[in-house]
Predict the structure.
Amino acid sequence: MSVWKKTSLLLLSMLLLASIAACSWGKSDKVRVAEVTRSIFYAPQYVAISEGFFEEEGLEVDLTTTWGGDQTMTTLLSDGADIALVGAETSIYVYAQGANDPAINFAQLTKTDGTFLVSREKVEDFTWDDLKGSTFLGQRRGGMPQMVGEYVLKDNGINPRTDLNLIQNIDFGNIASAFASGTGDYVQLFEPQATLFEQEGIGYIVDSFGTQSGEVPYTVFMAKESYLEKNDDTVERFTRAIAKAQQWVHEQPASVVAESIQPFFDDTSLEVIESVVERYRSQGSYAQSPLLKEEAWYHLQAIMDEAGELPAQVEYETLVNTDFADRIE
């Protein structure tokens, strides 16, 4: 064999090995995430995708919106997703049903309620007593918005069963349209709907359930216990990416955050997204760390108990895994 042929074969072999190595080094672990709804409330999650924080950790995130707590948990438990972004109360419901492979909360994304009290009329010097005798369009029973809503009403001296006309039989997706069509004097709404109603003159934000309810693990990332055990390194990298995004959201101007997440909200203007990001951030809704605190866990159960929805008291260590958040501190 000629020297030229030997050299060519050697170069070809080296190129082939380099190509294989490059493919191996560039390979990302895929993580399927099911989010309970699409919301600016979850801005750090979208930032982790758009700013490449997941990619930096060697992760490829496949995000699916599953629209509702029940559907999200069904998707997670049936292995349709690896990780779910949903209210922490759902893990308690599943555990109370005797799950053999329970959903474990490992990273907190939001730490307050995300809804606002919207009045049909402009109210000067609003007080919660103004709700007495009114018709209040609330959220569906058993979900965190409804439970926090009633907790805040009671905390402000309002009996939701006797002091006002409480409507809770309208599906989540139809609450805003029901209010817009004339139902209710007050309504409990998420953003950006609350801000859009203000812009359109349909309603006016008079208070925040998030500032009234205190810190609570309102939305968390959870996975089945078996997944956490088998994918320790992947979950740690996932948690690190979320932590980076949480800090980024707090450090960057609201306008920059809005530009980063706008591709996830095609039907919402950049101006509205910026306004909502600033509102949530100013009231401390975005957690600055993925660590779910023990006192917040028990505050969640106190709210559930007050609403008559707590199936059983569950210890913090049973359904909360802080290992991943602790490692990245």
About this structure: The chain is about 45% helix and 15% strand. The longest strand covers residues 103-110. Residues 115-213 form a domain with the D-Maltodextrin-Binding Protein; domain 2 fold (CATH 3.40.190.10).
